[in-house]
Amino acid sequence: MMTLKGEHIYLRALEPEDLEFIHAVENDETVWEISNTITPYSKFLIKQYLENAHKDIYEVKQLRLVISTYDNHTIGLIDLFDFEPKSKRAGIGVLVKNEDNRQLGYGKEALKLLVNYCFVHLGLHQLYCNISEENDVSIKLFSNQGFKNVGLKKDWNFINGIYKNEYLFQLINN
């Protein structure tokens, strides 16, 4: 089992015991906008997903890790997606589920751990993220970790009957 250890949190591979947490996250309409989700997921589908979570990132082109505190509370998820080994890039996204755990540095620490893993162990050249123009917290989080705003995608997402702009941020490993 892969574990990346930080000062206050650690990142670990998905386990079957994460079914309830992931089900709650994937079916929380308040986070659908940031995850580009429009439909709920059944426990059956999530169980199937967890059964395949052991597959190699080179095969499935994604990696989802759980953000846990050292007293073993699962507080969030951090994802690599659109993993492209030929061009050495991937998308990255982070979610701390409960508002009580947000803005305490957990997302920052998780992001720092995963960025380091991507550059050192996966040999990636760049990471990117897509952030809604209105998501000031995520803009600050990624900007403070060295990600640069490289563009605005106009009317990119259609949410609740209106089009919303989305920024593209990149971090290039020099």
Automatic annotation (TrEMBL):
GO function terms (MF aspect): acyltransferase activity, transferring groups other than amino-acyl groups
Residue stretches spanning the membrane: none
Keyword list, A-Z: Transferase
Protein name: Acetyltransferase
Segments forming domain N-acetyltransferase: 9-169
Any matching Pfam family: Acetyltransf_3
Organism from which the protein derives: Pseudalgibacter alginicilyticus
